[in-house]
Amino acid sequence: MPVTLILWLVKNEAFLTSEGVTAVGVDDWAYKKRDSYGSILVNLNTGKAIDLLPDREEETLRKWLEKRPKIEVMSRDRYSNYQKAITSGAPLAST
């Protein structure tokens, strides 16, 4: 499948609500490899994507998490910006 088609599908995806979600996974994905990255957030209970963030910056994820205080569990890779964002934006969540 061509990358442009995949990006079109992702941009037009109707994501499920993040209301009441308690377990979230975050990972990055490339708009353009080695140049532009975004973050995808997944409900770990359903395996469904719930949001896409325009970048993988600490502040962006921290703000997203602060709006969702019910998150109890976070899954991430070793990317340091995600670790910092989770520590400040969802301090009670276990990782």
Automatic annotation (TrEMBL):
Q: Which residues form the signal peptide?
A: none
User: Which InterPro entries does this one have?
Assistant: Transpos_ISL3, Transposase_DDE
Q: Name one Pfam family in it.
A: DDE_Tnp_ISL3
Species this chain originates from: Sphingobacterium corticibacterium
Q: Which domain of life is it from?
A: Bacteria
Q: What is the protein name stated in its UniProt record?
A: Transposase IS204/IS1001/IS1096/IS1165 DDE domain-containing protein
Domain (Transposase IS204/IS1001/IS1096/IS1165 DDE): residue spans on this chain: 24-94
